[in-house]
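Quick one, tokens below:
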């Protein structure tokens, strides 16, 4: 009887650092830290799709869980209420700033998950406009 070898589970990814680097749209993360980041739900949903195209909602749930863990460990009421320094993203955060970041990530990742969970099928038939041998540029004219 042949046994199928069991592969070890992949280690969990630290999404918070990778997400910050992904969402750094206003400047380089190494320069401005988290101030360079745009944590809008659309950017977070895009990050989730880039990490796991088949199950992006799982990534959003992992982000929420990691943000809650960050707050419980380093927030103002956490085990170490002194904050945290994350050298990879050039950021020194007080406990209060950790609270704000974690709450923002939880709220925005929940909205991103809602975006990802919507029905992604568009049942409408595509409409193509052809006029004088031109296609797409006619669509953008008034």
């Amino acid at each position: 009887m042949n046994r199928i070898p069991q592969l070890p589970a992949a280690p969990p990814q630290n999404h918070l650092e990778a997400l910050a680097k992904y969402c750094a749209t206003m400047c380089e993360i190494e320069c401005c830290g988290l101030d360079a980041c745009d944590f809008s739900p659309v950017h977070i949903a895009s990050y989730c799709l880039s990490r796991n195209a088949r199950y992006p909602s799982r990534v959003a749930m992992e982000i929420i869980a990691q943000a809650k863990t960050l707050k419980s460990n380093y927030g103002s009421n956490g085990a170490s209420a002194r904050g945290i320094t994350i050298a990879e993203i050039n950021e020194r955060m007080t406990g209060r700033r950790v609270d704000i970041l974690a709450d923002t990530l939880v709220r925005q990742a929940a909205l991103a998950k809602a975006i990802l969970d919507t029905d992604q099928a568009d049942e409408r038939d595509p409409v193509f406009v052809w006029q004088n041998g031109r296609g797409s540029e006619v669509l953008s004219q008034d």
